[in-house]
Amino acid sequence: MENRKISLFSLVGIISNTIDLISPVLVNHHKQVAIIAYNLAKEKGLPWSKQKEIILAAILHDIGALTLEQRLTALDFEGKNLEDHMKTGYYLISEYTPFKSVAEIVRFHHVYWRGGKGREHNGQEVPMESHLLHLADRIAVLIKKDRGILNQVDDVYKKITERSGTMFMPELVEVFKSLAHKEYFWLEAISDTIPELFIEEKEADKISLDDANLLNLTKFYAKIIDFRSPFTANHSSGVAATAQELASLAGFSREECRLMGIAGYLHDLGKLAIPVEIINKPGKLTKEEFNWIRCHSYYTYEALKSFPELATVNEWASLHHEKLSGTGYPFHLNEEELSLGSRIMAVADVFTAITEDRPYRRGMDSKMAIDVLEQMARNNELDSQLVALVKDNFSELNNSRIAAQRIAKEDYGQFNYRLVAK
Fold it and tell me: Is the pTM of this model over 0.85?
């Protein structure tokens, strides 16, 4: 992996692509908004640095809409009560320091122009880029998937231009007008592919895989995954710490342990496609609800498989619910097909889940946790040698988990405080 670089847009895109799987009507929404926003920014003559910020903001703009209801409400052209998801998205994105300017764009992306009053919102200046993102987002929600795109141009044009000066900044509506008669603008908006610059961006916009920035980015992902619910607020950090420590005890190299930590932060990426209402349910899930849950590890696999550089990370992350008996999910692999790394992640996930505190119950003590792990090993669900390693090093592993989750819990507390603060 040394000296290999990977597209920042692509890495960020795995978040929005996964979130959009939560409903068929939302598939590709973030990507569509990003393409429209990119073309508006390019037509306006903004420099590449600003175009990049707008694209990243578009790719992430609805991550603050945590529930399925919030996502569907945001599809209403003149949607109401969108303040909460703007604010939540802002604070989630700002958790990653390099995205501070991106977060500012998302913070105000549903603010109306209102004859110029939209230059400010709640006493704060609204960036022009936020108004551009708002326009791109509203164009996207007007496009119907069941109708030919060029047959919709007149209707979309009419709705947008009629609201110049009220919903939208007039200067940006003029930019839209200059694009609206060009077929490529509409055809790109519904395309499964993306403009060349999304893929062939400058080397400076790519992330080196041997850079600590990749670890920081995956920690950012973990917050987006976990901070959706108090039930999972620090789960990924616990799994990452446990898996990395267990890998070290199993004889993995320092580099492999680092990758194991990254895999731990990403293992529940697919849960972004699961309604938070199901994740938040403290009681027993219905069959239909559990079927939703059974999808998440496959979605993790799908999100990461387009990155050959992360093939090992993907294998370890996405197979954490497979069992040696072949009765796990989603691929029903057996012990001959599961690598040691995947087995470590499976043990780390169970270990963390049963020892961590949840809002509705306390974590298990060492005796109870070891009993559960040993029973699963006897059932040929978990690797018995790894379970024995956990038993022999329980305190060390648990202390690593507790330390990592304490930091994550503090971060989540600060995040929640900012959300409720006036």
Answer: yes
